[in-house]
UniProtKB/TrEMBL annotation:
Protein name from the UniProt record: Glutathione S-transferase
InterPro entries: Glutathione-S-Trfase_C_sf, Glutathione_S-Trfase_N, GST_Omega/HSP26, Thioredoxin-like_sf
GST N-terminal domain residues: 1-80
PANTHER family tied to this protein: GLUTATHIONE S-TRANSFERASE OMEGA (PTHR43968:SF6), PTHR43968
Tree of life domain: Bacteria
Pfam families in the record: GST_C_2 (PF13410), GST_N_2 (PF13409)
Organism: Albidovulum sediminicola
């Protein structure tokens, strides 16, 4: 399999976490692309020009992180959508994914306006980020050591992406439960190997 990635995308990280936790890394090659540069081979695979995009062994292109996660879940265990407590797991994942979506919207919005952070849309995105982290503090996911699943994938991705991209504040200062949860995930090979970087 072949995976188009970049080094900062939180959606790429969700997929890479699954690849690592499922022991599939030796079956997947990665190619770093600049989605804004519209490389021809990348656009041929995904006309939306978004990472991640996975090319299966059969040559089929699957775009969008959640669809790729669904495919990977079929290839190998453990399932990141565990039937035991699925609704609770998804309800914990949801605000984390919302916070991540909001954070990426700010980064993209800044490309079109110097005032994006303070306009109506930008302000709502920052509120979504803060509220998502607050909800994770009130109800943290399981530790990776207990069970890797979509909730802890989403939570570690949200925390690390927001603190990586928005360094002007201490996002976890008033969130002791989430801060302690993130501290406990340190050293997990999948978490360390997939950290965002420029």
């Amino acid at each position: 399999m072949h995976l188009y990635v970049n080094t900062t995308s939180p959606f790429v990280r969700l997929v890479r976490l699954a690849i690592e936790e499922k022991g599939l890394s030796d079956r997947v090659t990665t190619q770093i692309v600049d989605p804004w540069a519209d490389p021809k081979d990348f656009l041929a695979a995904n006309p939306a020009g978004r990472v991640p995009t996975l090319i299966t062994d059969e040559g089929l292109a699957i775009a969008e992180a959640h669809l790729i996660l669904r495919y990977l879940d079929d290839l190998a265990g453990p399932s990141i959508f565990p039937p035991d407590g699925l609704a609770e797991t998804l309800s914990i994942a949801a605000p984390a994914l919302g916070a991540t979506e909001a954070a990426t919207a700010v980064i993209i919005g800044r490309k079109s306006s110097d005032r994006f952070d303070s306009d109506m849309v930008g302000s709502k995105r920052f509120r979504t980020m803060a509220e998502g982290l607050t909800r994770l503090d009130a109800r943290p996911p399981r530790d990776f050591a207990d069970r890797p699943d979509i909730a802890n994938f989403a939570a570690v991705t949200a925390v690390d992406y927001i603190t990586f991209r928005f360094t002007d504040r201490d996002w976890l200062a008033d969130l002791p439960n989430l801060r302690a949860w993130r501290e406990r995930q340190k050293g997990r090979p999948s978490v360390e190997k997939t950290m965002p970087f420029v």
